[in-house]
């Protein structure tokens, strides 16, 4: 059973618009949550990591929230650019060490059009 | 520049052939991983290595084996490849929660 669900599956926005990606999970324990960006044919690049029970992070035009009580995270992208076209993957880690496992969502495919 | 390098980037093999996927990292990370990525699914863990000759099975180890003889190199081996092993394979290395790096992936087609 999938333990990390991302929505929407795909999303098309116009350049300059804002968008919100959702991640719901059932992983227990949930030590941390990370958002990755994956360009087509490339590896995953970490955007941000959230750790606290109710956490917020900001990295340029990317901002993210985590609510461990609701087991829910959001990734906000402000003023999208064409280069934001990619798949965004939510990953939940069940421990803070290498002994833990990472649980991957299937990703949200974002397409930014002119 | 910190990076994880995978070779080759693309590979086509016939069913039954042996496959060697190689991964290197220049960050002296102890922990390295092999994942596969299939359409519509999240990355699935094949093997994890905690250091030289300290490897553990992941969630889908059947049909695969690994080798880690040097900290900077982690190899994935498919003995007698099967068509259902067609996938994109990713190697990653990690120091801790904050630092996790992925390679660009190897696209393997087994015909």
Can you walk me through this structure?
The complex is a heterodimer of chains A (114) and B (111). In chain A, strand 4 (32-38) and strand 5 form a beta hairpin. In chain A, 0% of the residues lie in helices and 57% in strands. In chain A, the strands form two sheets. In chain A, strands 2, 4, 5, 9, 10 and 11 form a six-stranded mixed β-sheet that branches. With 114 residues, chain A is mostly beta strands. Chain A has no helices and eleven strands. Chain B is an all-beta fold and 111 residues long. Chain B has strands at residues 4-7, 10-13, 19-25, 31-37, 44-51, 54-57, 65-70, 73-78, 87-96, 99-102, 106-110. In chain B, the strands form two sheets. In chain B, strands 2, 4, 5, 6, 9, 10 and 11 form a seven-stranded mixed β-sheet that branches. A four-stranded antiparallel β-sheet of chain B has the order 1-3-8-7, with no helix packed on it. In chain B, strand 4 and strand 5 (44-51) form a beta hairpin. The model of chain B has no long low-confidence stretch (mean pLDDT 93). Chain A binds chain B through residues 2, 4, 31-32, 34, 36, 41-46, 49, 51, 89, 93, 96-98, 101-107, and chain B through 4, 30-31, 35, 40-45, 48, 50, 90, 92, 94, 96-98, 100, 102-105.
Descriptive terms for the model:
heterodimer, A: 114 residues, six-stranded mixed beta sheet, five-stranded antiparallel beta sheet, 11 strands, globular, B: 111 residues, mainly beta, seven-stranded mixed beta sheet, four-stranded antiparallel beta sheet, 59% strand
Per DSSP E runs of 2 or more residues, the count of β-strands of chain A stands at: 11
Alpha-carbon Rg of chain B, integer: 13 Å
Please give the alpha-carbon distance between the first and last residues of chain A: 38 Å
Q: Strand pairing plus helix content of chain A: what structural class?
A: mainly beta
Mean pLDDT of chain B: 93
Strand content of chain B: over 45%
Name the poorly predicted regions of chain B. none
Element-by-element helix/strand order of chain B: EEEEEEEEEEE
Determine the fraction of residues in helical runs of chain A and give it as a percent range.
Answer: under 10%
Number of strands of chain B: 11
The ordered string of helix (H) and strand (E) elements of chain A is EEEEEEEEEEE
Percent of residues in β-strands of chain A: over 45%
Uncertain stretches of chain A = none
N-C termini distance of chain B:
37 Å
